[in-house]
Design brief:
The structure is a single chain. The protein has about 350 residues and is an alpha/beta fold. It has 2 domains: about 110 residues, Up-down Bundle (Four Helix Bundle (Hemerythrin (Met), subunit A)), CATH 1.20.120; about 220 residues, Alpha/Beta hydrolase fold, catalytic domain (Rossmann fold). Helices cover about 45% and strands about 15% of the residues. β6, α11 and β7 form a beta-alpha-beta unit. The longest helix has 27 residues. The mean pLDDT is about 95.
């Protein structure tokens, strides 16, 4: 027998805010991720996980009628992944690999939750930048039904067991007759575009730019040996331009770790279509100087982000990159982030976009 409406409303009202609060808290875990802090992060996230588990136990006992069964399934799957992310931190035992898997579970939670954004306003607000969450005009624009149009999240050969595809986000309210900027976000080593897209979707949805999140041809980008990724990236840009009005004066290539390193390697080319480069927590690849491509940094708009506590690529590598890029004549903005480890500086996105979009 289906649960009555009062039970369903109570269960959803109990679960949804706890899920969103836990996911917001997990973003703080990601921001402060460092092998030496795992015990502290486990202590921080544990109360959120316990509170969410309690609400989820009640929610799972509900029987959703057929017309809203899909909605109940999305909430169930999102909560399952969110709790899995929390468990990955709580039970990591100091294992950095387990913590990284927890980060990926968090992206799955966002992916499962997003289809409900046009049903519950608090969920729609979660997928917006904080200053715009009470913008009623924006919320209304996002809630307009446009059947048959290429909007929202589009995946092209980008299942997580495949390489070389891409995920594309087109804001639901985008006016196809007006040109729009494009942000191309490159994942880190062994990562996947379908996961890394969520590092930028909130900003794309708020500000109305197109977001392309490709997956490397192999486990990471073409940093050594044969160049496999750049020709594909260039074709992806033209694919977007064919179907959508692309503002070619505003194409940002950005990435994290190996994706940051490859941002500079791919972006410092003579015929590069990328107007702005924003590498996060990467390095200036030695090949750029060795083959003379450093000269293409002249007058190039570059926003370099690096954490002072980066344990994989120490901050000194960023200071070296700063010196080389400035000597080559780049229009460089350098942002050393205090106490940031080798993790994505999501809170820097708004500043990068203010710089990129003017």
């Amino acid at each position: 027998m289906a649960s009555n409406d009062d039970d369903l409303l109570a269960g959803i009202t109990e679960l949804a805010p706890r899920l969103l609060t836990t996911m917001e808290a997990f973003e703080q875990v990601q921001r402060n991720m460092h092998p030496s802090r795992l015990d502290q992060l486990a202590e921080f996230i544990s109360p959120f996980s316990a509170d969410l588990t309690q609400a989820f136990d009640t929610f799972q006992a509900l029987d959703f009628p057929e017309h809203i069964a899909k909605f109940g399934q999305h909430l169930t799957e999102a909560t399952t992944y969110s709790l899995r992310a929390c468990d990955g931190i709580i039970n990591s035992g100091g294992d950095t690999l387990a913590a990284m898997k927890a980060m990926r579970a968090q992206t799955r939670a966002q992916e499962k939750l997003y289809p409900t954004a046009n049903i519950l306003t608090p969920i729609s607000q979660y997928f917006l930048e904080l200053p715009q969450r009470d913008d009623q005009g924006l919320l209304e624009k996002l809630n307009v039904d446009r059947p048959g149009e290429k909007i929202g999240i589009l995946n092209a050969d980008n299942e997580r067991d495949t390489r070389g595809g891409f995920s594309l986000y087109i804001p639901e309210y985008l006016d196809s007759s007006q040109t729009a900027p494009l942000v191309i976000a490159l994942h880190g080593g062994t990562g996947h575009g379908r996961d890394f897209m969520w590092s930028w979707l909130r900003e794309a949805r708020t500000r109305g730019f197109m977001l392309l999140s490709p997956t490397s041809q192999q486990d990471t980008w073409s940093l050594m040996g044969e160049e496999l990724d750049l020709p594909v990236l260039l074709r992806m840009v033209e694919f977007v331009a064919k179907d959508f009005a692309l503002d070619r004066q505003h194409i940002l290539l950005t990435g994290m770790s190996d994706g940051g390193t490859y941002t500079l390697l791919a972006g410092l080319q003579e015929e590069s279509p990328f107007t702005h480069l924003a590498p996060f927590s990467g390095v200036l690849h030695p090949e750029i100087s060795m083959n003379g491509d450093i000269k293409y940094a002249r007058d190039r708009n570059i926003y370099l982000v690096h954490g002072t506590h980066d344990w994989m690529f120490p901050i000194e590598t960023a200071y070296m990159a700063q010196a080389e890029l400035e000597a080559a004549g780049a229009n460089l903005t350098f942002r050393p982030i205090e106490e940031l480890s080798h993790t994505y500086a999501r809170t820097e996105n708004p500043a990068v976009l203010d710089w990129f979009l003017g």
